[in-house]
Specification:
It is a single chain. By secondary structure, the chain is α/β, with parallel strands linked by helices. It has a single domain, classed as P-loop containing nucleotide triphosphate hydrolases (Rossmann fold). The chain contains eight helices and ten strands. It is globular, with a radius of gyration of 17 Å. The chain starts with a helix and ends with a strand.
Length: 228
């Protein structure tokens, strides 16, 4: 019951998390004693200057990077004792990422990029689901186009469709509009917030864009590796 309560109310919890990396000039503290959590279905924007640790924070939260100190609990499971295979199983179909640089597979069509995510998550009717997801982001006429044949906004809409088609519990978005012009960025943000809200997905968003951050339920600021 403790597991269910934690998972259902707070899909991500980070307690006293630190990240220290080595460099030629010695250790560098990226994160310092960070406490962060969000409620199920909540949207949270993390703002702050470049180099403040925002991307590192969500990478650790998603289990893509290991914390040097502290505890990270993702979907009710402490990540400290999990190997890479166990982390992948935990995230599969339940945690998604949207990146600034899209991260689409260049040799796959838009449809196949989305379908692949569904197949990895072992979801039924992957093809039909992928088509519906692309239709929902306005790309029903781009199913057979490769990423190189799409505009930046279209590629990011494919990335949003891929991230949300599994109806994940938690979505991490790292500067999802950073490579887009203002109008296109607003359209992508509309999709991201609307679909996440409709599905009840928790959204943790890193951004430099104050207008985008203002759309979130809550905003926190990161400075010099600490949350304020």
């Amino acid at each position: 019951m403790l597991y269910l309560t934690s998972y259902m109310t707070h899909p991500i919890r980070m307690t006293n998390v630190g990240l220290t990396l080595t460099s030629t000039s010695g250790p560098v503290e990226i994160l310092r004693g960070v406490d962060f959590s969000c409620k199920a279905g909540e949207s949270v924007a993390i703002i702050g200057p470049s180099g403040s640790g925002k991307s590192s924070l969500i990478s650790i939260g998603a289990g893509l990077e290991r914390a040097s100190t502290g505890d990270v609990e993702l979907l009710g499971t402490n990540l400290s004792g999990l190997d890479e295979d166990a982390l992948a199983r935990l995230r599969r179909g339940r945690v998604s990422m949207v990146f600034q640089s899209f991260h689409l597979l260049p040799t796959m069509t838009a449809l196949d990029n989305v379908r692949a995510a569904l197949e990895i998550a072992a979801m039924d009717d992957a093809l039909a689901r992928a088509k519906r997801a692309l239709d929902a982001v306005g790309l029903s006429d781009r199913l057979d186009h490769y990423p190189g044949q799409l505009s930046g906004g279209e590629r990011q809409r494919v990335a949003v469709a891929r991230a949300l088609t599994c109806e994940p519990d938690l979505v991490f978005a790292d500067e999802p509009t950073g490579n887009l012009d203002t109008k296109t960025g607003e359209a992508v943000a509309d999709l991201l917030f609307r679909i996440a809200s409709e599905q009840g997905s928790t959204l943790v968003l890193v951004t430099h864009d104050q207008a985008l951050a203002a759309r979130a339920d809550r905003t926190v600021k990161m400075l010099d590796g600490r949350l304020h």
